[in-house]
Design brief:
The chain is mainly alpha-helical and about 600 residues long. Helix content is about 40%, strand content about 10%. It is built from 20 helices and 12 strands. A two-stranded antiparallel sheet has the order 1-5. Strand 2 and strand 3 form a beta hairpin.
Length: about 600
């Protein structure tokens, strides 16, 4: 692969450590070296720490985060073209499902850069422990677990975006080590990364050392336990991976480990407090007895959830997120330019105001205003007001604010079917520095994955086993929904026909998952998973294609159309990489009239 070849020369040898990781204890003090060679490196623990920091820094890069958004969200029904998107031809054509092999978002090199860095650390970390007694065997195992998780996450993104991809665990540090490979199947890669994660999960740290205090009601912080891989983060990954593999029992088992870890965190940090502020997580109880610590919105603090998770960031509920604590006075930190460009109107005078290249589906903007409630069940659901800023609800114009705003302020505004005001720019706080975090996994994401696993295990028969599965799924969905709804009379009802019917619960789950995770790079991947379960593309066609007016590859006639083509240059350089047949004979340039 040409890009892997480039990684060898410029990434693995010279540029592995060009950026410093943000937000993780003493990790912040690590200073990257300019040149890395086998002769002058891999001698002590700090060398390994610098390399690990370089992996996270590569994931913080603009091109990495852009692909997380474009691959996972752009092709879904949530995203519409922003006012300036025609200035970016590749985004514009991808929005119209006109995917060409020359599209820059077919370039996967940054993901293979991270993979190669992880492989390099996994190969060399044991050698360092032989030279540096302070780098203990348990430290080595924890490092390998952390790097295995990052590598597995990269491969998971790649197969969901491209279906079949080259897979290797070998590190490449010299040009003569390059070995071109054919693409391995989706199921093979998925099975291998699951096997890898299970092999190292027990060696991963439960927690990293806590650092700065926060104003969560008791002065606790979870920053260092979500900005780096931990065992709960690995369990979150495995929950989703097992779900894609249709191993529903293992998905439930891993999700339960996540919930148990969070209950333990809550017990340790909050249970002894006689009173908690609204900004702290609360123990929430579902109708059938499930108890989970979550942030909760109320009528007086309607924006609490959004402020904690997406404003302040690094929240109690976070399992793994990349922190962008940039400020103009700290130039060694990294800006979140991908979110600012795609969602927040970057560049712009005075900060990330206005729309980015990507905007909100007009039907979502007008959903509650017009009483359609296709995306949000009622007008007390605070996610309708914090996910985006409605500019004109009659015409369905809106800007994405999740991942862009640094604070959310919802005030009562009972008129025209609206309960809170989020029209004005003043309803959101924006910093001139682009420092919004990117979240890979958080607690409610895992809860909804577990609910899906319960429903996939259930059948339509009426028996005690299915009744228990449906109740378990309902409790998980109930809690995710209730924590964002400010009126208790609007909570889901356990005795309703929806709550006791598998098909209806599955529809509710999918709607709830989109409302909860909208714009977080999850939706199109979810649609692909649903299509794989169904064995056809009907759900994608029925959900997405209404936004495509003309042209492009069209209406997802078969499963291969759900995935991106390989980049033209990759196929040219790697003799074993064969372009997918639906793209092999296609054009490589856009028609200027399209």
């Amino acid at each position: 692969m040409k890009q892997l070849h480039k990684t060898i020369r410029t990434g693995a040898v010279l540029g592995l450590l060009s950026l410093a990781l943000v937000g993780c204890s003493d990790f912040l003090e690590i200073k990257p070296r300019d040149i890395v060679t086998e002769d002058n490196f891999w001698n002590e623990k700090t060398d390994v720490d610098q390399m690990v920091a370089g992996c996270y820094a590569s994931m913080q890069s603009d091109e990495f985060i852009r692909r997380c958004i474009v691959w996972g969200e752009l092709r879904s029904e949530n995203i519409y073209p922003g006012s300036q998107v025609q200035d970016n031809e590749d985004l514009y054509q991808a929005l119209r499902e006109n995917l060409l092999t020359t599209n820059s978002y077919c370039n996967w090199s940054i993901f293979y850069t991270v993979i190669n860095k992880c492989n390099t650390i996994i190969r060399n970390a044991p050698l360092v422990s032989q030279k540096d007694p302070s780098y203990r065997s348990s430290d080595v195992q924890a490092t390998i677990a952390e790097m295995t998780a990052l590598r597995s996450l990269c491969y998971f993104y790649l197969i969901r975006a491209f279906d079949e991809v080259p897979f290797t665990r070998d590190a490449v540090t010299q040009e003569d080590e390059v070995q071109y490979q054919p693409a391995s199947t989706f199921d093979f890669v998925l099975g291998e990364i699951i096997k890898d994660l299970e092999a190292v999960k027990g060696n991963a740290l439960e927690h990293h050392a806590s650092i700065n205090q926060s104003s969560d009601g008791v002065g606790r912080t979870y920053n260092s336990n979500c900005n780096r891989i931990t065992r709960p983060a690995i369990n979150a990954m495995l929950t989703e991976m097992y779900l894609w593999q249709r191993n529903f029992d293992k998905a439930i088992e891993c999700a339960e480990e996540v919930l148990a870890a969070k209950r333990k965190d809550y017990e340790r940090e909050y249970s002894r407090q006689t009173s908690l502020t609204f900004s702290a997580p609360q123990l929430m109880t579902a109708p059938h007895g499930l108890i989970v610590p979550l942030y909760q919105s109320s009528q007086s603090n309607a924006a609490n959830v959004a402020d904690a998770i997406f404003g302040t960031g690094n929240s109690f509920e976070s399992l793994f997120e990349l922190s962008f604590n940039y400020s103009s006075s700290q130039n060694n930190y990294i800006q979140s330019t991908a979110l600012a460009t795609l969602y927040g109107g970057y560049p712009a005078t005075g900060g990330n105001y206005g729309a980015g290249f990507l905007a909100v589906n007009p039907n979502i903007v007008s959903d509650v205003f017009n009483g359609t409630n296709a995306f949000f069940a009622n007008n007390y659901d605070t996610r309708y007001y914090t996910n985006f800023q409605p500019v004109d609800q009659n015409y369905g114009e809106g800007y994405v604010r999740k991942g862009v705003a640094s604070a959310f302020r919802l005030e009562p505004n009972v008129q025209n079917n609206i309960q809170f005001n989020s029209f004005a720019e003043s309803a959101f706080s924006h910093h001139s520095d682009f420092d919004r975090n990117w979240i890979f996994y958080r607690l409610t994401d895992v809860m909804l994955l577990e609910a899906e696993a319960y429903l996939m295990k259930a059948t339509d028969e009426e028996n005690d086993t299915n009744k228990e599965l449906l109740e378990n799924a309902f409790d998980l969905i109930y809690l995710v929904n209730a924590r964002s709804v400010t009126d208790r009379s609007k909570y889901l009802v356990a005795t309703s026909s929806v709550a006791t019917n598998r098909g209806s619960l599955m529809q509710l789950l999918r709607k709830e998952r989109n409302a909860e995770l909208m714009f977080e790079g999850k939706r199109f991947f979810d649609l692909v998973r649903y299509a794989r379960f169904d064995g056809n593309t009907d759900i994608v066609k029925n959900t997405v294609t209404s936004k495509i007016s003309s042209g492009g590859t069209g209406l997802f006639p078969s499963m291969p159309y759900l995935f991106w083509p390989y980049a033209k240059e990759e196929v040219q350089v790697n003799p074993y990489l064969v372009q997918k047949s639906i793209y092999g004979a296609g054009r490589t340039t856009y028609d200027i009239n399209e």
